[in-house]
Amino acid sequence: MKDFYAICDGKTDAAPAFAAFNKWAVTQTAMVQLTIPSGSVCAFTSNAGLWWAKGIKNLLVVGYGATITNNGGSVPGFFLGGRGQIADNRHSARLVTVAAGSSKVQLLTPAQASIFTVGSYALITGFDLQGIWQAPYGYPSNPHWFEYVKVISVDASAGTVTLAAPLKNTYKSTWPNYNSGSQFEVDAGGPATLYALDPSWDTQVEYRGLTISQDKFQTYANGRSVTYRDVKFTGYNCGVPTQNYLWQAINTDMSNCNLEVDKLITSMVMNNVIINQLKFQSSSTDLVTISGSTIKTQLTGTPKKAVISDTKIADFRPGAYAYGRSDEVICTNCTIGSFNPAGVFETGFGSNPVQVSYAMSNGVISFPNGTTVLGATNNGAGKVRLTVASTAGFASNDRVNISSIAGTYEANGGNKLISVIDATHLDLPEISFVNAYKSGGVVGLYAPRWAVPGTNLLWVGAHGSGPIFKVLDVTQDQNFSYIKTDFPGSFPAYAGAKLAIRVHPAPKFTCNNCSGSADVVDLNNAPAGAPLYSYSKRTYSALTGTIAAPRVPLWGALKSAKFNVTTPYSGAGALQFQLSQFNNWPMMSSPTTVSNFGPGINMAVAGERTLTLTGITGMQSLDKLGVPPNPGTLLGPSNSGPTFSAATQSSAQITVELMTDQHISQ
């Protein structure tokens, strides 16, 4: 930095010097190396160098022993990459449905071909997870499916764009569209959409040896390839993956960071990293690979696929927890202190349960997109009453988003409680009426963040979680969104008044040589790639007596239960093993019937007993076994753990193997 007259003494503003470096570096065609001498503390106290790395095609910054910092300022001092999506609705185009394997896309509006440039990068997306009806907001967009693509030809007359490589995913024009952005907000997408990216996204940057200190802010580095090697981040926020084809942290200290991964990341790599907390809200990251690392407090959520090896995780909660779904988790040689799966949990809008906020008929779940506001007044009790085009599908106690009302501004905002008065009126019981209505307004609901096509879902009700069903497709008309599932009929009656929906956190899960909690050790026994909680094999010793062991978490229809007394009880009196201490493992045997599954085994007789849907083999005297109903769906963990009928000093042992069918195709 001496060539650009930087004074890196921790006080003088170094931002102008970094801006001068950028002005030179963007003109270079070969790799640019910037060396920051050891001991330098380069303070960015103005915004002159905010985008000092933007537009440099290939940048290596070497700064062992050096620091870049915003000196604790009230605004960010720097970004460490370029830009990505352009924050407006003039750089995106809707597409005709395009199948995986195709390398050419057809624009619905051929004139939009002028948006795209040969040799540039673009982004194709499908299925919006976070949009709000007619209320543009949020950057970047949050699609479940996306790919960074390079444009190799544009046919303006035909309205086609040809890509350098075949697409990996299918993108449908019929998926819902909740908003198309605005002059200042990015298009949320939803249906198949192609975005022109800012040219500065096409960059490869690497930072080595630096300490990066911007404690109050997340440090963004949009770009095709971003690497931090031998870097230390200070503070809580740290460097955030966002809009990257590849983002890497190698030998990096993030020990105080609570890192929330953003969106639109194809591959994220963490190798020999120490980090406090790592969070994946959304499935808008395709792959994370973590090796030789330590996650001090919690790994919350996972992207579409997580491959983790030789890593210590204090608390692991797989499954994207706010938007979309995770498909697969693989753990090898990991130490996991506790294991508590996540996955999106949909309870309805506001305080209403799912069966009130949504409707369901013939396997199709529906909800209103939104409605137009036509007026606002005092409801007679000092609160806002809205006149709307229609209240069809809305329910009292739902919470909605209200936007674009002029005059009665106090009604605008998210999470607004509503009361349905009649076919054209809604009250806002928490909002006092203050200002006269002038014009406009939209009452809107939200993209179904839990209903990505192909997602496996569980009903959650009074007795537990299950059965499992699948989203087949999601479509939309002018007034409603429709989620087509393979669940027959309407909402399940067994679940009671408070029905919710849970996204399966890991339809494919593999643990190899992992250690830690009882659940983690048990997961080692499951077949590779089996759905999480479809298999359990645990051994119990009579030395634990009447103290209940941890509950066994299982979902799905019971296929078989094997009880193998490997060391029989030889003491005085009888000793019984009970799979559920109080015989209260809930099992659904019909859409309206829930019974208890609680086999008991006589520990005095060695040998294996096998219970399947067709019969029982190996049953001994004093065993308490019965053929389970077919289907018999286990609704999550038992309400009480396995135990023995008496406290003894016996070393008798039994191994219990349980298998379920979650009807998840691999």
What does it look like?
This protein is mainly beta. 3% of the residues lie in helices and 43% in strands. The strands form nine sheets. It has a ten-stranded parallel beta sheet with strand order 2-4-12-15-18-20-22-24-26-42, with no helix packed on it. Strands 44, 45, 47, 48, 50, 51, 52 and 54 form an eight-stranded antiparallel beta sheet that branches. Strands 28-41-38-39-40-30-29 form a seven-stranded antiparallel beta sheet. A hairpin with a 3-residue loop joins β39 (464-476) and β40. It is globular. It starts with 8 loop residues before the first strand and ends in a 5-residue tail after the last strand. The mean pLDDT is 95.
Our Rg estimate from Cα atoms comes to: 29 Å
Multimeric state: single chain
Question: What is the end-to-end distance?
Answer: 54 Å
Q: Write out the strand line-up for the largest beta sheet, numbering strands in chain order.
A: 2-4-12-15-18-20-22-24-26-42
- In helices, the fraction of residues equals under 10%
**Helix-strand category:** mainly beta
Strand portion: 35-45%
Low-confidence stretches: none
- The tally of strands reads 54
Average of per-residue pLDDT values: 95
Counting H and I runs of at least 4 residues, what is the number of helices?
3
Main sheet summary: 10 strands, parallel
Using the alpha-carbon principal axes, give the shape: globular
